[in-house]
Design goal:
Blueprint (H helix, E strand, L loop, with lengths): L3 E6 L10 E4 L13 E6 L4 E11 L14 E2 L8 H14 L3 H8 L10 E7 L3 H13 L3 H13 L1 E3 H7 L4 H9 L3 E7 L19 H15 L6 E5 L5 H14 L3 E5 L7 H11 L3 E3 L6 H12 L5 E4 L11 E7 L16 H12 L2 E6 L4 H8 L4 E5 L10 E6 H6 L8 H13 L2 E5 L9 E3 L16 E2 L4 E3 L6 E3 L12 E3 L4 H11 L5 E4 L7 H12 L5 E4 L12 E6 L13 H13 L10 E6 L5 H8 L2 H14 L7 E9 L2 H29 L9 E13 L2 E10 L2 H16 L7 E6 L6
Parallel strand pairs: 9-14, 9-15, 10-12, 10-13, 11-12, 13-14, 16-26, 17-24, 17-25, 23-24, 25-26
Antiparallel strand pairs: 1-2, 1-4, 3-4, 3-5, 6-7, 6-8, 18-22, 19-20, 20-21, 27-29, 27-30, 28-29
Helix pairs in contact: 1-2, 1-11, 3-4, 7-8, 17-18, 18-19, 20-21
Bound molecules: adenosine-5'-diphosphate and zinc ion (2 copies).
Length: 757
């Protein structure tokens, strides 16, 4: 019998981050399984704590007499997921976090939320009987009872709300009727489906040859028990989503379930509708706007086999399907697939691991695959499919690259090139729509003194403050705000002002130039809620505006058939970011922006404005040549040992005092250097011929943005071709810190970070 259980205590502290063994009381014999939440006494004072069962067995690891006993089960109704526990252990190992953090990532249903109950009142007697009683109530002037009965005679069962609120029958009255055996109160549990769509069911489209080939190949290999990941490289509009639908249908036929990962921002009504039309009630959605209860319900429905498909951002990976068959990952290159909190996992790698544990396959799709995925496809680790044609008609747009330096030289001081002005004018005349895309919110919105060069910075974060139209200067990191300045605090000069080129400024300029145009602006400020985001999109789709101005969020997966012009206002802004992924990101953004133009029968045009027309990212994006871009970019990554050619471990140390953060970083760097020296020594002895570059340790250095919210950050970067080498170094640092009485500051790990720090 399983008399003992290993438990991870729910305390996020490096010191107690190991399993503790407990006795299983008789009452719980045979009832405990890994994944359950339990109440346990813990520590010297036996304080009550909660913990997660990760293993049960019958071998005590220390004398039974000293072993404490589990008190009771908290999450008794949650079906255990051995697989999720294994996944948590993998996350902890691969990305560095405490076990409890990893468990909380994969077992999201940790909060017990009462399932919503629908209370109803119904007759407990026959209708004939009820009618007789009704007469007697009427005679006795018991009007409330009479009201209820006469309704029940007509309606058989009534909603509790209706009874109490609309019929004004008090709960006491219902109760006394129940005690008299006349009515019955029942509670019906029901699960909330967060999406209310009265979608008309639709059969799948007749697939094109390419689409059918992909669906049949993947399902064919699946049936032959061949499991390997696939990458679909397909331009926007080539029919990837239709392929996903075909694959999911295949999974459902085989009695398997599918997880569809879609970046939150692309999780629009339009997209969801396609899934709902095809699979109806068997689909559910998970997103950040769901309440804890709704999340819990989705998980419950998945567990009970009531749904076959869950759609959501990266956390949808952890929905516990009993027979998971496929994980689809749309827009595979998206940086939001990387978690920003510990464990800082990547959904792609995690999906691959989950698929391995579940005998499932992973299918990724993108118009601009990440270098990571594409290089693995090149090495035949992933099966590769290419889709080059747009299906719903629509040719690829004509792309113009406009050199902003030349515009200035030739006397155009506006933020719109002459070409863009001309094209924009045409669109307004023809009543066609335009999307204008600005690389980053509030970029160069900083305020400086033209006399002495002083820049207004946030006192907490050391980044420049941005000027908003309401006159405030705002920090985009911590939200600090102060009134605008009329004089320079350094030299007293009145020439202090902001460079206006954020989305607000673009909107202003547009209205000045084209007063008759209707302009919508979409950025983080105008889309604080999901509702406002959807409202703006549908307003634009309904042609309530001529021009949509926005940040990257406007380029993601929306179909606007009437958009025939896309303008990119400063294409190279993202190139100047100090980050090895800057080129890749710029290429992706430009390609996606271009993909927005001319999606229906009307031909599209794209104007890319740039200060660096000769840059390879701009050239390849303008030519819509992914392979060309890939060949050049992978050379650069290889030359400089950046992912995917090598791996990077960023160790970040946080502390309220600068010396402490710095000291902790120095320790981490010292440990990493020791580890790599040892490696060199080993290589010298036993593998002299190896030319593989050894582990390189960079830093410590104050992080790029040194201080956020009054916390100092220092970073150490470690590069190696061998990921496992970095995992070992991470372990070494973890162990060292766990062994210290008072480890300095806080330590976080980030493998292959998505951006520079
Ligand atoms: P992607 O996901 O690659 O952007 P979609 O699957 O959204 O592409 O397809 C683009 C457009 O082509 C959509 O309007 C879709 O309805 C249409 N489409 C896709 N496959 C077919 C098909 N086999 N026959 C007709 N139209 C299709
Ligand atoms: Zn000044
Ligand atoms: Zn700040």
């Amino acid at each position: 019998m399983d008399r003992f259980a290993k438990i991870i205590v729910d305390i996020s502290h490096e010191k107690v981050d190991r399993p503790f063994q407990y006795k299983v009381p008789d009452a719980l014999q045979g009832k405990l399984t890994p994944g359950m939440r339990v109440r346990i006494p813990f520590g010297k004072g036996n304080r009550q704590r909660t913990g997660y069962v990760i293993e049960v067995g019958d071998v005590p690891e220390f004398p039974e007499g000293k072993m404490k006993e589990i008190q009771d089960v908290l999450g008794g109704d949650t079906e255990p997921q051995q697989r999720m526990i294994a996944l948590a252990a993998w996350l902890k190992e691969q990305y560095g976090s405490t076990m409890i953090q990893a468990l909380k990532t994969v077992l999201p249903a940790r909060r017990r939320v009462a399932l919503r109950e629908k209370k109803e009142v119904k007759l407990a007697v026959s209708v004939q009987d009820a009618k007789e009683r009704l007469e007697s109530f009427v005679k006795k002037h018991q009007t409330a009872k009479a009201r209820l009965l006469s309704e029940l005679i007509r309606e058989e069962r009534l909603d509790w709300e209706l009874v109490t609120k609309r019929l004004h029958v008090s709960p006491q009255t219902v109760k006394s009727l129940e005690e008299a055996g006349v009515v019955l109160q029942t509670a019906v549990t029901y699960y909330r489906n967060p999406v209310k769509l009265d979608a008309v069911r639709e059969e799948g489209k007749y697939l094109s040859d390419t689409q059918r080939h992909i669906v049949e190949s993947v399902l064919g290999e699946f049936d032959q028990n061949r499991r390997r990941p696939y990458l679909i490289h397909g331009i926007t509009g080539s029919g990837k989503t239709e392929v996903y639908l075909g694959l999911i249908a295949g999974m459902i036929e085989r009695g398997r379930q599918a997880i569809v990962l879609i970046p939150e921002i692309a999780l629009t009504y339009q997209t969801l509708l396609r899934f709902y039309k095809r699979f109806g009630e068997r689909v559910s959605v998970m997103n950040s706007s769901l309440s804890a209860g709704e999340r819990q319900d989705q998980i419950e429905r998945a567990r009970r086999g009531e749904i076959d498909v869950i759609i959501g951002p990266r956390s949808a990976l952890f929905v516990p399907f009993p027979r998971l068959g496929m994980i689809l990952m749309d827009e595979e290159h998206e940086s939001s697939y990387k978690s920003e909190t510990m464990p800082k996992y990547h959904a792609r790698e995690t999906a691959l691991e989950l698929a391995r544990l579940s005998d499932a396959v992973v299918v990724m799709g993108s118009a601009t695959p990440s270098l990571e995925a594409y290089s693995r496809a090149m090495r035949k680790e992933f099966g590769l499919f290419t889709m080059k044609e747009r299906l719903a008609g629509g040719r690829l747009p004509q792309v113009y690259v406009e050199d902003l330096r030349r515009e200035l030289r030739e006397g155009n001081r506006s933020i719109f090139s002459r070409r863009l002005q001309e094209k924009l004018g045409e669109r307004l005349l023809r009543k066609e729509q335009t999307m204008l895309f600005l690389n980053r919110r509030g970029y160069a919105g900083f305020v400086s003194c033209r006399s002495c060069g002083y820049v207004c910075k946030c006192p907490h974060c050391e980044v420049s403050l941005s000027e908003h139209r309401n006159g405030k200067l705002v920090c985009h990191y911590c939200g600090f705000a102060q009134p605008a300045l009329s004089r320079c605090p350094e030299c007293g000069s009145p020439y202090i002002s902001g460079f206006k080129a954020g989305t607000e400024a673009v909107e202003e300029q547009l209205l000045k130039r084209y007063p008759q145009a209707k302009v919508l602006r979409m950025d983080a400020d105008t889309t604080k809620t999901r509702d406002s985001y959807e409202r703006l999109l549908s307003a634009f789709a309904n042609r309530e505006a001529d021009i949509l101005v926005g940040t990257q969020m406007i380029v993601k997966g929306h179909d606007f058939p009437n958009v025939t012009l896309v303008g990119v206002l400063a294409a190279d802004l993202s190139l100047s970011v100090n980050d090895y992924r800057a080129g890749e990101r710029t290429f992706q953004l430009l390609t996606q922006a271009a993909g927005r133009a001319g999606r229906a029968e009307k031909p599209g045009e794209v104007v890319i404005q740039t200060y660096q027309p000769e840059h390879y990212c701009i050239r390849y994006a303008a030519a819509q040549d992914y392979e060309g871009f890939y060949r050049e970019e992978i050379q650069y990554r290889t030359l400089l040992s950046y992912p995917p050619a090598a791996h990077i471990l960023a160790v970040q140390l946080f502390a309220a005092r600068e010396e402490e953060a710095q000291g902790a970083a120095q320790e981490a760097a010292r440990l990493a250097r020791c580890a790599s020296k040892k490696e060199e020594a080993e290589r010298g002895v036993c593998n002299v011929r190896s030319l593989a570059p050894q582990t390189v340790v960079i830093g410590p250095a104050p992080a790029h943005i040194g201080k956020i919210n009054d916390v100092y950050r220092y970073g150490v970067y470690i590069k190696s071709k061998d990921y496992q080498r970095l995992v070992e170094i991470k372990d070494l640092i973890e162990q060292y810190r766990a062994g210290q009485e008072h480890p300095k500051g806080n330590c976080q790990f980030d493998f292959d970070p998505m951006s520079a720090y």
